Amino acid sequence: MKTRRLLAILEYDGTDFEGFQIQKRRRTVQGELERALHAITGEKIRVIGAGRTDSGVHAAGMGAHFDTAWKRTLQVLHKALNAVLPTDIAVQSLIEVPPDFSARYSAKSRAYRYTILNQTTRSPLAKRYALCISEPLDTDAMDAAAQSLIGQRDFGAFGSPPRGDNTVREMYRAQVRRDGERVLIDLEANAFLYRMVRRIVGTLLLVGKGALSVGEFHAVLEKQRRAGESVPPQGLCLVAVKYELATEPH
Amino acid sequence: MKTRRLLAILEYDGTDFEGFQIQKRRRTVQGELERALHAITGEKIRVIGAGRTDSGVHAAGMGAHFDTAWKRTLQVLHKALNAVLPTDIAVQSLIEVPPDFSARYSAKSRAYRYTILNQTTRSPLAKRYALCISEPLDTDAMDAAAQSLIGQRDFGAFGSPPRGDNTVREMYRAQVRRDGERVLIDLEANAFLYRMVRRIVGTLLLVGKGALSVGEFHAVLEKQRRAGESVPPQGLCLVAVKYELATEPH
Q1: pLDDT at A247 over 60
Q2: What is the DSSP letter of B194?
Q3: Please, which residues have CB within 8 angstroms of residue B197's CB and are 6 or more apart in sequence?
Q4: Cβ(B20)–Cβ(B30) under 8 Å?
Q5: Is B54 a catalytic residue?
């Protein structure tokens, strides 16, 4: 049976998922997507994601590819998926890609955003998508510390590799900025280690609170000091996975 | 027993409430607030809100007053309330007001915002706080129509009065603007009729979709045409209730 390979860009609210990757008897994004594809096509389809978001982490632009014998237009499949998928997952775009394309290995970069609400009282309207920090944060110091992350570096201080792989990654962008009461931390790299974003954010928060200097943050990166604790998942969002394609997925 | 009157500014996520006003055997904002006040003070306290938000409507700045014999500082009561209240309600500020102050009758204006996400696919990350509309919307026409709402007018076309009261209200601000894929509708008036904001938004949407001209919108206001349907509650937020006070509540 002739199949074609498709790339889906997914948005999901991670609150009620135990992460992206399929697990038995647990609600996962991959599991819901494979179930929807089976319901629509009748095929047993395996989905390959660009990576694995942890339990509670959100995504605005996760990439995932799969092979299908689907014969009708992609527009019909796209609409059917959004009709069948639960309301906390949606397919934002669906395109055909070459048979050797991989949502994981063809990805040029992953961009994450961590959102902090920096105000004294907790916020019922923001808590689902942000971490509330009541102490004042020095975002200029946090941004200065973040600059030392840019470039090809060993990030072993901030995370573990998937399967004994090396811990060198290339960071393209690292920025901390204030937008009213929000503090936005943007990180973009070719790939990330397990828990790396949340451990970097936890360590940047020590800088923001004055518990760690910019120089000491650099020492953490050099493994001369221990990193801060990982921050909770609700503030984290996988904003985009970038691919080089003739047709843009968005 | 000597009591003092306090004004609380409340933020809440309306998703899991059956509105603000207390009702037997239903989860309401007023009910939760009175329960928390009783747990902390031991007093049976009646709370008076600036108005009643419907089931599912959010608030970033609802005003509510109450009388209490509380003797310790307001800071202690404020912290205790935020510790005892469920995570979907928070007290943003708490101040003492004169004994003749009323959260309802002393309010100078109420400001509401209705948020629309105007894109072709549904959005899991936005659906809790916005209405998704896939058809293109002419926001310039919507804004032009909204201008005819400004001033002291009979808004009977868009809502019913509370208890046979008159339907004249004064609109101070009416604006429709686009911010990326979001369309923000801001309305501020001295007071609003039941369902008035959601019926105005429903009618403005007809203008945005080209089903009603700006002139025809004006005819609706003049009761020469019927208003559009009321829109769902999740896009609506009571942003602020404004008071004239020596001390600012924020």
Answers
A1: no
A2: B
A3: B112, B114, B187, B236
A4: yes
A5: yes
Check residue A161 and report its DSSP letter.
Answer: -
For B193-237, how does the pLDDT look when each residue is reduced to its tens digit (9 = 90+)?
999 999 999 999 999 999 999 999 999 999 999 999 999 999 999
Beta strands at B236-243 and B4-12: parallel, antiparallel or unpaired: unpaired
Cα separation, B215 vs B145, in Å, equals 8
C-alpha B214: how far from chain center: 26
Q: Which neighbouring-strand residues pair with A153?
A: A169
Structure tokens at B130: 């916005």
- Of the candidates B133, B238, B129, the one whose C-alpha atom is nearest the C-alpha of residue A129 is B129
pLDDT for B249 beyond 60:
no
Distance CA B215, CA B225 (A): 11
Confirm or reject contact between A250 and chain B (CB < 8 A).
no
Contact check, Cβ <8 Å, A82/B121: yes
> Residue B247: which pLDDT band, with cuts at 50, 70 and 90?
low
B35: confidence class by pLDDT, cuts 50, 70, 90: very high
Residues 6+ apart with CB under 8 A from A47: A30, A33, A34, A37, A64, A65, A66
- Residue in the block written with tokens 């309401």: B28
Any idea what DSSP says for residue B212? S
pLDDT band at A162 (very low <50, low <70, confident <90, very high): low
| CA A47 centroid distance within chain | 17
Q: Which of B122, B179, B236 to mutate to test the interface with A (most CBs of A within 10 A)?
A: B122
| Contact call for A122 and B88, based on CB within 8 A | no
Kindly report the pTM of this predicted structure. 0.91
Helix intervals (H) in chain B: 29-41, 74-84, 139-147, 196-208, 214-221
Report which of A235, A185, A234 is spatially closest to residue A208, judged by C-alpha positions.
Answer: A185
- The tokens for A25 are 């008897």
Contacts of A89 in chain B (CB under 8 A): 124
Let me know if B44 is exposed, middle or buried by CB neighbors in 10 A (0-12, 13-18, 19+): exposed
